[in-house]
Amino acid sequence: MNKDNGNDQKLIFVSCGQQTTEEKNLGTSVKQLVDSQPGYKAYFAEYVQSLDALAKNILEGLRKCSGLISFIHDRGLVTTQGNKEWGHRSSVWVNQEIAILAYRKQFEGIEIPILVFKDKKVRLEGAMTSLIVNPIPMKSESEILKQIESWLKSTEFPLSSSVNDYRFQSKWEKLSSTSRTVISALLDEGGTNVKESSIKVCLREDYGMSKNEASKAILDAQGEFMNTDLVKLIHN
User: Fold this and answer.
1) Whose CB among 38, 76, 104, 128 lies 3.0–4.6 Å from 124's, allowing a Cys bridge?
2) Nearest residue to 33 via CA among 141, 157, 156, 160
3) Distance (Å, rounded) from C-alpha 23 to C-alpha 138?
4) What domains appear along the chain, each with residue ranges and CATH number?
């Protein structure tokens, strides 16, 4: 019997909260399950030892993964400036991971299967509303693991494309941190056919920029987007 070559393994990105012991244990159990399936390897941030390398490794995992398993945990009630209840929000980290994957799907033009488990109280927002279809309510760990095993066995995952992988990486590295933040805001607003005014509001409300900072960030990013062709600008 031939063993799977490590280069032929399909990487499954495990996006799971780590605020509590229960969440860490769940992420670890999912990683162990994925790793036990022939032809699959899991990425789980708990196993990245260096904090300095965390952001880089998360991007690397999202850039190369063939599938995503995500857990949308409840991170508390959010109210508007008028003290009106907006709803329960999930982790900012998980939101950004899903946003990056959504952008990669658009850039490469491929379908990347995702399996999402959601706390019933959480309200989806931004890129999650278009990327996540029929999230599964969170239940016991044993039930979650059964559903994941069934999903792995019944789903067809794309092979990693070294050509697209290189193109994305080379262009992404040319972007400044500000331009990457603008892309995050773009994805938060849906990812396609987004008005500049909506991105400005998102940069101010979700990323803490002032009105002038948001305008300058978008202006600076537009030049980099044209040079890299990562984002298509449409002038009405």
Assistant:
1) 128
2) 141
3) 12
4) 9-160 (3.40.50.450), 174-228 (no CATH)
